[in-house]
Amino acid sequence: MKLGFGTALLLCSALSTGAAHSATLPAVKAGDKNQVPACTTPGRLMAYLKERNPALDSRFGTIASEYYRIGTELGMRWDYAFFQMIVETGSLSFKRDGRSGDVKPTQNNFAGLGATGKGERGESFPDVKTGVTAHLQHLLMYTGQKVDDAVADRTRKVQEWGVLTSWQKSIKGAVTFTDLTKKWAPGASSYGSDIEATGQRFYENNCTKPDPQPDLMAALNGKTAKPVAAKQDADVLEKVSGAELARKSIAEERAGSGKKKFALGAGNLAKAAIVETEAEQEEPPAAEAPAPKKSAASPAFKILNAPKPDAPEQPAFVQASAGGLAKPALSPPAAAPSKCRVLTASYGGQRAIIIKSKSDQVVSYTVLEVNEGTEKRETDAYIQAYAKGGEQVGEFGTQTLALDKAFDLCPEG
After folding, report:
1. Nearest 5°: CA angle at 334, between 266 and 346?
2. What gap in Å lies between CA 137 and CA 198, rounded to an integer?
3. Residue 68: phi, psi to the nearest 5?
4. Residues 69, 381, 313, 110: is their CA dihedral positive or negative?
C-alpha cells in the first residue's frame, strides 16, 4: 500500500540541492535533548515563508503560530513539521514550476493527506487550525503513539488497519523525520534532503535576525496567561506603577554594585502589588505575583507589560516619570496633558538606547534595552515597528543611566 500521501501532488519544493543526499533529521517527538530551538518563533517563520512566497495568502498569516501552539501541546518537533509543510505545498503556493498541484489552498491540507495522485485531491479541512492539527496528528501517529479523536480520515484508517505496525517495530529507537520521510515518500529520493535543506536555510539565515513580528509570540503567551492577582507566570516582564515603588527601585539600583540588571517592574518590584496613581484604592491590594519565569522558548523581544488573558497582545509599554510609573496599559498610553513622557522596552540586553519620537503632539523618550553587538540593528527594528520617525538620542551602559538622562530630557515624565 502506498503511504506517500503528499508527494504525488507535484508540490515538493524545487530546491537547488543538487544530487540527493542522506538527510539527518531529528526525532518526531520532542525530548530533553530534542527541543525546538528558542529562536524558532512564529514571527521568524512567517518572515521565512514570505521570503519564499511573497504572494502568500493573508489567511495563512498566523499558520506558524498554529504549528507552534499545537505542536508544543503534542510534544513534537513542530519546526520540522513546518518545514515539511513548506516542501509539500511549495511554500503554500500549492504550485510547482508555475503549475498547480492536486491539492487546492482552500482545502487547508498542508501535508497532502489522502492525495494519491492522478487528480485525487485528498482531504479537506474547515480552517487552517484544523488543517495544521491533521498534519501534526498524522506525524505523531507515525511514531506509534495512538491518536485519539483524529481529525483526518486518513489518520483514523491507517491506525485502524495497523498499516504501520510492522514498520514501527523495525525502527530502533525514536522515530525520526528521516525514518518518516522514507516511508511517507518511498519514491521520492530527495524528499528528506529537501526538508533538511529547508530547515538549514531557516536556521542559518533567519534565526540570527530580530523577530520581525514579536506580537505573534506575545499573543501566544497571552492566551495562557493568568491574571496578576492569581500569581501569573508570564514570559514577559511585569510592570508596576506607583511613585514610591519607582523611587525605591531607582534608589536601590544607584546604591548597589551596578551589576544587577535594572528593569522597571522586574526583580524586587515584581512582588509588589500594582498601585494606580490616579487615586487611593479602597479595596485590598492585589495578591503578590512571583518573579517572571523564563521559558525555553523565550521570545527575543520582550515588552515590559503583563499580557491580558485570552486576547492578542499589542505592542505595550511602561510609562515612567521622575515620580513613578503610570497605571499599566496594554497599548501605548493616550496623550496626557504633559508634553512628553518616558517609556521603557527591552530586547533583553544590558545596554540602553534612548529613542525620541513624537505622536499626537506628545514627545516620547523610550529607554530601549539592547544586546551588545546588535545595538543598531535592534534600535532600527524598534523604531521601524513602534516609533515611526524616531531617532536615537543617546546610548548608555545601563538602563538606570539612560532613565536618568531621559528624565533630564523630560522632567515632567
Report:
1. 30
2. 22
3. -60, -55
4. negative
DSSP string, 118-163: TTB-----SSHHHHHHHHHHHHHHHTT---TT-SSHHHHHHHHHTT
Helix (H) or strand (E) holding 195: helix 191-205
In angstroms, the CA 354 to CA 155 distance is: 54
38-70: buried (b, 16+ CB within 10 Å) or exposed (e) per residue? ebbbbbbbbbbbbebbeebeeebebbbbbbbbb
Query: Using CA atoms, how far apart are residues 334 and 291, in angstroms rounded to an integer?
Result: 28
Contacting residues for 165 by C-beta, under 8 A, at least 6 apart:
none
Q: What is the dihedral of CA 24, 116, 11, 203, to 10 degrees?
A: -30
Q: What is the pTM of this model?
A: 0.53
pLDDT at 338: 56
Please measure the distance between the N-terminal and C-terminal CA atoms of the chain and give it in whole angstroms: 71
- The strand pair at 324-325 and 340-346 is best described as unpaired
Phi/psi at 399 (5° precision): -65, -35
- Read off the amino acid at residue 45: L
Residues ≥6 apart with Cβ < 8 Å to 35 = 296
Cα separation, 257 vs 95, in Å, equals 60
Local structure of 346: helix, strand or coil: strand
As a whole number of angstroms, the distance between CA 187 and CA 171 comes to 20
How long, in residues, is the chain?
Answer: 413
Q: Where do we find the cell 543526499? A: 21
SS3 165: helix
pLDDT along the chain (413 residues), means of 10: 35 33 79 94 97 96 97 97 97 88 94 84 95 98 95 95 94 94 84 95 93 91 43 31 41 45 30 28 40 37 36 40 39 54 82 90 89 85 88 87 85 72
Question: What's the one-letter identity of residue 385?
Answer: A
